[in-house]
Design goal:
Rossmann fold; alpha/beta; binds pyridoxal-5'-phosphate; globular; binds zinc ion; 6-stranded mixed β-sheet
Length: 416
């Protein structure tokens, strides 16, 4: 604990004290947490991590808190699933799923960033937590603010899935639906922040929030037996997760916990909102903002805050970016459920479907160790599958009724 020296500008390297700020006053670059790696090297070993709790807090020395975490004590350390059946379907012999669809407490990767952001907000003395969200962040902020006994005021674009809305309201949060896209909501929140002294987890608390994502990368490496994989396929919204998985692997390399990192990082988006993968495919480092139009609402950010760094991460690693249609997203969600028994949300359909495409393109090779990021839970985006299945057969509670349907239908479906 207490390995944070302050903040540092990612561009001009100017240093700042620890404060709830996120932009450099001099060059307008984003601020990052500035760690005392010399001190960290003295205390972090494989053994020190392995003897920690079965949660993301086993990496506490590498996370930006000065005090013990206040919320999300059970967040993280989600399963790394060996996906033999899906691997067979995709033609990959060493395929894994990093499954945050079962993360505690709100079933998405966002629980990691929020547990850090709210713990930090408490250190700063805030009593109200806020955010602009595409849905999962709203769920996690509402839940963990409730756990902390803090107030929350949460902003979402209109038209989100019912599960994301109810999954926010249930915690007693103040929820505001804004007419517009996520990018409109985000801009509005920046303006609200001028008048209201709130902790906006992904705006003024963003440098700390972002580092919560590092735990997802640490876990992949530790759970592979202190190895980094050949490929990781990452869903991209604001580009926090993709840059922080890369950062996590390189911190582990610097600490001598893994060998030289040779992982290719692949960005995955929905074609209906693909500013990052489009730039990668065009060989450009600049985001051209888009107006989102996709069922993958949780990753529908048209003007991503860290998009430039997301592009750079994929390129620097030797990876690539791909996107798939809404139809392909639905097929991939079903394929994952049918092969591995994992029901992911639309963003997980994006990473599974994009992986399939990358294998077909020869960018991911059959025998390479490949990790697909599954970052959210399918029960929250049921609308996406609304047209896929007919209602279950209804019968009387009588054996004749069953045998009738059995000989008419079930036998044809392979039951005997
Ligand atoms: C937020 C989110 C992501 C990625 O978010 P970044 O802003 O790129 O870090 C991925 N998957 C799901 C399900 C999300 O909710
Ligand atoms: Zn700067």
């Amino acid at each position: 604990m207490g390995h944070v020296k302050g903040l540092i500008c990612k561009e001009c390297k100017r240093e700042y004290a620890q404060e709830p700020i996120h932009v450099c006053e001099f060059c307008f670059g984003p601020l990052e947490v500035n760690y005392d790696y010399e001190a960290i090297k003295k205390v972090v070993t494989k053994q020190s991590i392995e003897s920690g709790p079965p949660s993301m807090w086993r990496y506490e020395a590498l996370l930006p808190l000065d005090e013990a975490p206040k919320v999300g004590l059970h967040t993280g350390f989600t399963p790394l699933v060996r996906a033999k059946n899906l691997g067979k379907a995709l033609g990959l012999s060493h395929l894994y799923l990093k499954n945050d669809s079962v993360n505690h407490p709100t079933f998405s990767f966002k629980d990691r960033v929020v547990s850090v952001a709210i713990s930090k907000a408490i250190e700063f003395g805030f009593d109200t937590i806020s955010c602009a969200s595409t849905g999962n962040l709203a769920n996690s902020v509402a839940a963990q603010a409730a756990e902390a006994g803090l107030k929350s005021c949460i902003f979402i674009p209109d038209g989100l899935e019912a599960g994301k809305i109810l999954g926010t309201l249930v915690y007693g949060a103040q929820l505001i639906s804004v007419k517009g896209s996520y990018d409109d909501v985000n801009r509005l929140c920046s303006e609200i922040g001028v008048n209201h002294n709130w902790a906006f987890v992904n705006i003024n608390i963003r440098p700390y929030y972002g580092d919560g994502s590092k735990s997802y990368g640490y876990e992949i490496a530790e759970q592979l037996g202190w190895k980094t994989p050949d490929n990781v396929v990452v869903p991209v919204a604001g580009s926090s997760l993709i840059t922080k998985i890369w950062k996590a692997f390189h911190e582990f390399e610097m600490l001598g916990l893994v060998d030289k990192v040779q992982t290719k990082i692949f960005a995955a988006q929905a074609t209906g909102c693909s500013p990052v993968t489009t730039a990668i495919k065009n060989g450009s480092e600049n985001i051209i903002p888009v107006k989102p139009n996709t069922i993958a609402k949780s990753i529908a950010i048209g003007n991503p805050a860290d998009g430039y760094y997301g592009i750079k991460t994929a390129n620097a690693s030797g990876g690539y970016g791909e996107d798939i249609s809404d139809e392909e997203i639905v097929s991939a969600m079903k394929l994952l459920a049918e092969t591995e028994g994992v029901f992911t949300e639309t963003a997980g359909g994006v990473t599974v479907g994009v992986t399939q495409k990358l294998v077909q393109q020869g960018r991911i090779k059959p025998d390479e160790v490949t990790v697909i990021c599954i970052t959210g839970n399918g029960l929250k985006t049921q609308e996406a599958l609304a047209d896929c299945f007919s209602a279950p057969a209804v019968i009387e509670a009588k054996i004749d009724s069953f045998e009738e349907i059995f000989s008419n239908d079930l036998a044809l479906n392979g039951l005997h």
